[in-house]
Amino acid sequence: MIPVQLQPEPIDFDVEVRQKGLAWAAQKGIALNAPAPKGTKFPAYWSHSNKQLWTAYSGICAYLAIYFEWVTGASSTDHFVAKSKDVAQAYEWKNYRLSCLGPNRNKNKYDDVLDPIGLTPNTFELVLTTGQIRPSRALTDKAEVAAARKSITRLSLDSADHRDMRMKHYARYLRNKDAQTLKELSPFVWYEAARQGLL
User: Fold this and answer.
1) Model confidence band, residue 134 (pLDDT cutoffs 50, 70, 90)
2) pLDDT at residue 74 in the model
3) Which residues pair with 135 in a beta bridge?
4) Which tens digits make up the pLDDT trace of 22-62?
5) Can you tell which superkingdom this protein's organism belongs to (predicted)?
6) Separation in Å, CA 7 to CA 53, 117, 134, 136, 148
7) 3-class SS of residue 167
């Protein structure tokens, strides 16, 4: 995971997503800025902005820091603050993170994952030869290390499959030494390779 910059809200977001969501909550008598009543079924007005979210973030998953094509159907809108815990955040652009389906499912409604938007640079580091991800050894605050470790565990970022993916990305770079392509397709691997002087 690397820092992500919040992108501007689409022009039609307020009309097509926010206002429809707020009107639905008002009609149902559901309070904003509060947990949703048990069993609440949220209308997925945010689906209107799914492709806009993918485009705004250049197809880069906020949690895996990899590029994925829209046509794969793997794109999803993660509500960073779970909509079940704060109704007002269900229809807010700034609460949306572009995510592949896997990390979105792993994160679910949990609130113990570090936010890629506003993430401190160099919170995580990679071992490029193995694909391992770990809290940065530069972190000195125990709470920060624990939070980074929790995010890795919650999102399964250090699974064998995730390690294998990152190893392949770096191996492909080594074959052709195309740093720009690595940056576009696997920005975390590119960042770590650059930081470690391996490009």
Assistant:
1) very high
2) 84
3) 124
4) 999 999 999 988 899 998 999 999 999 999 999 999 999 99
5) Bacteria
6) 9, 10, 27, 26, 24
7) helix
Neighbouring C-beta atoms of residue 98, cutoff 10 Å: 25
Cβ atoms of residues 112 and 91 within 8 Å: no
String of DSSP letters for 11-27: TTHIIIIIHHHHHHHHH
Reply yes or no on whether the pLDDT at 19 is more than 90.
Answer: yes
pLDDT tens, residue by residue, 60-104:
999 999 999 998 888 889 999 999 999 999 999 999 999 999 999
Q: Are strands 75-79 and 132-135 parallel, antiparallel or unpaired?
A: unpaired
3-state secondary structure (DSSP) of residue 117: strand
* Element spanning 162, H or E: helix 160-176
Whole-model pTM: value is: 0.93
For residue 74, report the phi and psi dihedrals to the nearest 5 degrees. Answer: -90, 0
Residues facing 60 on adjacent strands: 67
Dist CA 165 CA 156 (whole Å): 13
- CB 123 within 8 Å of CB 136: yes
The CA distance from 62 to 51, in Å, is: 15
Residues whose CB is less than 8 angstroms from the CB of residue 171 and which lie 6 or more positions away in sequence, other chains included: none
Cα–Cα dist 69/138, whole Å: 34
Write out the E strands in 2-154.
Answer: 75-79, 96-100, 124-127, 132-135
